[in-house]
Design goal:
The chain is α+β, with helices and mostly antiparallel strands and 208 residues long. The protein has helices at residues 38-52, 64-68, 103-117, 141-153, 169-177, and strands at 17-20, 26-32, 73-81, 87-94, 124-132, 159-165, 181-188, 197-203. Strand 7 and strand 8 form a beta hairpin. The longest helix has 15 residues, at 38-52. Residues 1-15 have low confidence and may be disordered. Residues 28-204 form the N-acetyltransferase domain.
Length: 208
Amino acid sequence: MAAPTAPAMQFPSAPPTRRSSPGNTPIFTIRPRRPEDLAPLAVVLAEQQPRSLYPISWPLPFPVDDFLQRDGELAAFVAEDNRTGETVGHVSVCGCIEPPKDPKEAAELDAVWAAGHGCAVSELRIIGVLFTDPAYAGTGMGSALFNAAIEVARKDGGRPVLDCLRTNTGPLAFYQRRGWKMVGTWHNTIWVPGEELLVDLFILPDDK
């Protein structure tokens, strides 16, 4: 039986986001993910992992497609290189699934996020699976993907949240510069068997 997912929600398609090269030629476009994007995204994920250490456990102990496509997914975007047509970045937005696959884990995270926002768990929108090809560092691709996810997460009153491994100092600084607020820490014993990882939990305040 398929795992239950969050109720289907209709979001307007975000307008494509384009960034230009010095010659004013658009370098990339942010667009909704398509099924045919999964294979090239798996390659990008593998290529960037040694540098970003995301995901922390590699190779994954399950199919990469299951990492890219999450239960409760509401929207997903990719960055496409306008010059080559290659898919070179990704982000997704998920709702909290009911009932959760791991009740203890979900209850712990959802309760902290919901308390931080002062909202119901059903209003939470989890931004994740954000990664880009390292060759595009400095182009604004990560920010463009992130902004597209935030825009969708806030549709219909959604409240953006995310988690970040404490040792990932680069992403932590990225989120904090953009006004994300840490509201708790999850002592994660799931991602790497036999280890406890500190995962900080963030919300995006309404005025950010």
